[in-house]
Structure formats: C-alpha cells, structure tokens
Structure to design on (477 residues):
C-alpha cells in the first residue's frame, strides 16, 4: 500500500534540497531576485524511495515566518509564483497522465491567496519560479517568510450539502459515473449514472447512457459539466466540470479507457471496511491527517507540520496585569522615538498593553518589537487617548518600544502586561485548548470564547497576583 506523499523542494539542478531561500535585499518598486524569478523543483518522493502515493490538489502559498498572515509581505501578496512543467524522475516516475501547468504569468500568493498546481506522482516534480515583487510603497525591511506547499487541499470547501446520497448516507450505491468500453461499438463508451460535488458547485445528475466520441484518433477527456451534461474534449475541460475518464480512440475504435474519477475520503485510517472497500465520488470526507505541509524559512529548514501532540503548560506565581510592568510612563516628544533601555520583560509569554494620558488628544500606533516563541516580530497597537490598548502577540522578550509622533510632551505612554497568556507552541483551532486549572481548581468553562488560534493565546480575564494557571492543549508539530 502506498504511503503518504514525501514532499521536498530541490534547486534547479536537482542536486540539493532547499532548506533556505535568501532573497537578500531589494529596492521598492523592483523584483527580487529578478523579474524572471528563481527556479525550484517541487518533488514527490524523489527516487521513489518510499513508494509514495500521488500528491493531489497541490497548493502553494506564503505566510509570515511564525506561520501567521499579518506582515505586509504576506497580506499584501508581495511573493509571486508560477508553475510551468511537470517532469519525471529517473527511478520510475510516470507523469503521462498529468498536464503541464504552463503558466505564462506569475500569481501573487499570501493571505487568502494561493497558487493551485497539478498533481505530482511519485518520483516526479513540478517546476516553479519564485520572485518577490516589492511595491513602490514598501517600507518593511528584514522580512523572513515561509513558503507552504500543501497536498490534498481543496480549492474551496468540498461541499455545503450532499447530493445523490444513498444507503447509509455516506456511500452511494453502484459504481457511480464509471466509464466503460462499449464493446464492438465504434467511438462509443458506456457511462453509469451518478452525482458529484466539487468546489461548492453542485454537479447534478449524470444519467446512465451510451456516449459517442469523435471518430478522429486522439485522447479525449470525458467530463461531467455543472449542468449534469456528459461531454468530451481533447483540450482543457471547462471550469467547474469534473473529469471522469480519459479515452483513446484509434482507427475509430475505443482502444483504452482510463478512470479519472476523484475519490475523496478513502485514504484516512479508521473508516470501517464498507467505507474503504468501495470508494465513490459521493463519499465526501476530508482526511486532514493526510495533509502534508512544509515550511521554508529563510533562516531555518524544511519542517513537516502534519501532526499534533498533547501538551501541558504550567504558569507558576503569575503577576497581575500591570500598566507599567514593561516600562514606566514615557513622555512623548512630538516625534517618533524608540525606547530600548529600562525595559522589564513579561514574567511569562503574554501580551503587552499601552496606557496613556489624554491632555492634548494623543494618537497614533505604538509598536512593540521582541520575540514570540523565539521569533522576532512586531505588534502594532493603536493608542487609546486616556485609556489602555491591548496587543495581540504574546511576547517572551521585548527589545524595542516605539512611541509615535502623535504623542506630544503633554502626554505619556506606559507599557504593561495584560491578562492574555501565550502558549509555547502554535495551535490550529480554538478547540485545541481543552482544559484549564487555576490554583488546582478546574476552570475549563472559562476557555469558551477566550482562545485565539491565530496568535496561540488564552485570555484569562483577570489574573490575580501569584495565582497558578495550568493549560492543556494540542500543539502543532
């Protein structure tokens, strides 16, 4: 039985695995490294070492170095990628059923934007080109970003509803939408009835029928349109259609039929025998534990993020929230000022607060710079005149405080710690934090509505000085 895909990125010569991509520096309004991009190869099981299964529904996107999507490079989509061709390896790679992506233009990737490329069989690779398109307004410097390549990731939610479901509500009856050779009939195939759903678009009934293909010798893609019509083409199938078979016509006769139906859900362990023995299109199930995600840091290595592990963190003798813990009141100057001296780090990973006076209506954004889970980052906090503004990132260490020009000598800003604690490792879902105790008393009920999965934080509402808090959660690995 084939194992999960084994994904790696190689250089253009295929003689070195890419563990870091250093784009150096560039001027605003220019391409880095060049407008043509840098060539890389996305391999699945290079050398067929593991006998991996095909990598399907492959997507590429970019995130911040800490896995978030809040840096300008990510949410403004500075990184651009295109995919051109698919190539076979020398150890049995077979890409004969695949099509080159053949992209003429680069596509921006980042927050809510990704590049979909074709499938990658074992011992095959797709060629991509990567560049950074710096806008003329770019002011960010020293940016580290991550390239994410995901497998079995649908272009959108697989379904909002189920259509044509039979039997136990999961497995449709019959071999739905199967295409078979109509023996003895020129250019004809038989197609079983069936239903399917793709990309939230409902494809309605494909009725049982005999379909006649052109008599011209060629390879034809048989597809079901979103209107439920069976048709064929030698080129690309129309948008929102589903390819169900590939048929070769030779001398006016069907010489071969290749099944191209996409079965989703027959790969995850734990399904009962009835659900794995006869997979069908109507069986809609996303197997999240087969998703393969790789991250490329410009200063780190490729790391698999395809597992979770239960963790426990105990915070001993917590300090109460304090408006001045990190830095006492800082007097404004009417100009931007950076403060690096007399900073006291948080007692544990937790968010920063900015508290200010309101003599002459101060305004602007205060910026905290430091380490979150060991990675340098910033938190831009909009000031509240005469009030307290709370950040979102749980800092371990703080190295710089920037007070904006909107604070004059009439007002001050103090920097403190809030009641929001940071987890040591990242999480995916708010439900990943599943138990809480305070001073040995169960407080799990307090978790509801107080977990931020984006920043990996837990809002404790009000922390009493010297209290002990213990959290149990599922961490990403």
């Amino acid at each position: 039985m084939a194992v999960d895909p084994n994904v790696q990125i190689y250089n253009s010569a295929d003689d070195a695995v890419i563990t870091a991509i250093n784009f150096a520096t560039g001027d605003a309004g220019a391409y880095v490294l060049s407008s043509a991009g840098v060539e890389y190869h996305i391999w699945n099981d290079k050398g067929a070492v593991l006998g991996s299964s095909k990598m399907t529904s492959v997507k590429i996107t970019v995130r911040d170095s800490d896995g978030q999507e809040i840096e300008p490079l990510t949410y403004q989509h500075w990184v651009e990628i295109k995919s051109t061709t698919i190539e076979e390896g020398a150890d049995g790679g077979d890409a004969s059923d695949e099509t080159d992506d053949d992209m003429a233009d680069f596509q921006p990737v980042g927050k809510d934007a990704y590049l979909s490329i074709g499938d990658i069989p074992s011992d095959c690779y797709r060629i991509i080109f990567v560049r950074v398109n710096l806008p003329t307004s770019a002011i960010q410097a020293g940016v580290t970003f991550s390239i994410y390549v995901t497998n079995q990731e649908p272009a959108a939610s697989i379904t909002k509803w189920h259509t044509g479901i039979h039997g136990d509500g999961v497995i449709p009856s019959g071999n739905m939408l199967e295409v078979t050779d109509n023996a003895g009939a020129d250019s004809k195939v038989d197609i079983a009835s069936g239903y399917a759903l793709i990309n939230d678009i409902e494809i309605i009934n494909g009725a049982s029928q005999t379909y006649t293909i052109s008599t011209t010798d060629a390879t034809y893609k048989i597809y079901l349109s979103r209107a439920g019509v069976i048709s064929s083409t030698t080129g690309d199938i129309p948008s929102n259609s589903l390819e169900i078979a590939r048929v070769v016509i030779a001398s006016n006769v069907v010489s071969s039929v290749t099944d191209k139906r996409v079965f989703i859900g027959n790969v995850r362990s734990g399904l009962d025998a009835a659900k794995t023995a006869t997979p069908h299109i109507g069986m809609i199930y996303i197997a999240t534990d087969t998703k393969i995600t790789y991250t490329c840091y410009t200063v780190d290595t490729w790391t698999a993020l395809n597992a979770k592990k239960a963790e426990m963190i105990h915070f001993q003798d917590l300090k109460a929230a304090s408006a001045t813990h990190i830095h006492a009141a800082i007097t404004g100057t009417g100009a931007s000022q950076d403060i690096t001296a007399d900073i006291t780090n948080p007692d544990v990973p937790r968010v920063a607060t900015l508290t200010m006076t309101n003599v002459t209506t101060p305004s602007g954004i205060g910026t905290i710079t430091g380490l979150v889970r060991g990675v340098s980052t910033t938190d831009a906090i909009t000031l509240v005149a005469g009030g307290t503004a709370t950040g979102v990132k749980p800092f371990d260490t703080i190295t710089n405080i920037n007070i904006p020009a909107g604070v004059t000598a009439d007002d001050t800003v103090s920097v403190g710690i809030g009641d929001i604690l940071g987890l040591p490792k990242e999480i995916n879902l708010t439900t990943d934090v599943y138990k809480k105790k305070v001073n040995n008393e169960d407080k799990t009920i307090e978790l509801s509505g107080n977990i931020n999965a984006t920043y990996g934080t837990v809002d404790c509402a009000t922390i009493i000085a010297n209290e002990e808090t213990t959290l149990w959660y599922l961490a990403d690995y």
About this structure: The longest strand covers residues 412-422. The chain is about 0% helix and 40% strand. The chain has three domains: 7-153+291-304, 179-259, 307-477. Helices lie at 72-75, 273-277.
